[in-house]
């Protein structure tokens, strides 16, 4: 087993062990990928303020997210096609998250279905909904999530229409992959992936195939979104969906203060400041840059979380110090899954928790709840560089 010291180690293994089509699917942003790149480079601009001779004993990363106890304020974000990064990927990631004590979110566009994950795990997980222009599907899928014991609903509000990711078009992304010559040549070097995939029956969009009709190519993500996603989503519909669910709701994909205020006013239990990992509006600001103004606008009305660009515990620390009550990780756990399956997701979580804990201690803090702006050194003008 290779020595893994950081998330980048997992990323290298993920690239080596996973078909190019699916590695590229994870490792891309939309269009020029400017926002995708800035999500990480903006985190890197923020520095940490060292404090010495402070009692470091009795440290804790524990917290709560929408009232749920968590080992650290880091949830696994919804990631479509996780079961193509590794066979039964959603089940493996959900198990790792449950054992570690952090929430797992199942995407609408998962390979394993809601029922598959519920059957294979004990802890309740969260379900993420993409609203389709099909009321019956929306109602049924919420009933299925409720029946599976899902403890919160994540409504993604930033993807009524798909931002183009060039690599997916060039690779001809489908689930399962179509066996073209380049795909077969690539698979020849990814034999472990292929063997595991042959051993599972879960190779299609498990929440959708058999539950929705009228899509011309059910293996294609871009066809699904173009034909079935609801382009008319608005705040009334979001509110209706929240009422239909009747439980905890997290609105994910907020980057604007006015939108954050709307989200708080419709009663979201939490909002995720997110640009979808740079996969939607290319040219949007990084999440970490817009976080402080959203926290100051609505932080006393709803829990404000952040995702997009987190690759380390230091990044989590920076988000918490700027006022986030929680965070989500997408690629960081996908790298772990693609690298080593369930143990890889556990490794990703361990790496992040250890980095968070040690960095917090070296900043002179013992509890994630005590992190604050003063723990950071931020370049002049960074937070109000754009208006
Ligand atoms: C491969 C991939 C697939 C994703 N699929 C979904 C999805 O199905 N639903 C959703 O709400 N967000 C989806 N996202 C966005 C993530 O939930 C999250 O916002 C993003 O990954 C955070 O950025 P990070 O990857 O830099 O941590 C996806 C992200 C990636 C990388």
Structure explained in plain terms:
- This protein has 387 residues and is an alpha/beta fold.
- The chain is 43% helix and 11% strand.
- It has 17 helices and twelve strands.
- It has helices at residues 7-17, 20-26, 34-45, 82-85, 89-100, 114-120, 135-147, 166-171, 181-187, 191-198, 221-228, 235-245, 257-265, 287-298, 313-321, 331-340, 342-362, and strands at 47-48, 63-65, 68-70, 74-76, 105-106, 126-129, 152-156, 249-254, 270-273, 303-306, 326-329, 376-377.
- The strands form three sheets. The chain has an eight-stranded parallel beta sheet with strand order 4-11-10-9-8-7-6-5. A two-stranded antiparallel ribbon has the order 1-12.
- Helix 5 runs parallel beside helix 17 and helix 15 crosses helix 17.
- The protein is globular and about 60 Å long.
- The structure holds flavin mononucleotide (FMN).
- Flavin mononucleotide is lined by residues 25-26, 39, 77-80, 107, 109, 128, 156, 252, 274, 276-277, 279, 307-310, 329-332.
Sequence-ordered SSE layout with sheet pairings:
Blueprint: H1 7-17, H2 20-26, H3 34-45, E1 47-48, E2 63-65, E3 68-70, E4 74-76, H4 82-85, H5 89-100, E5 105-106, H6 114-120, E6 126-129, H7 135-147, E7 152-156, H8 166-171, H9 181-187, H10 191-198, H11 221-228, H12 235-245, E8 249-254, H13 257-265, E9 270-273, H14 287-298, E10 303-306, H15 313-321, E11 326-329, H16 331-340, H17 342-362, E12 376-377
Parallel strand pairs: 4-11, 5-6, 6-7, 7-8, 8-9, 9-10, 10-11
Antiparallel strand pairs: 1-12, 2-3
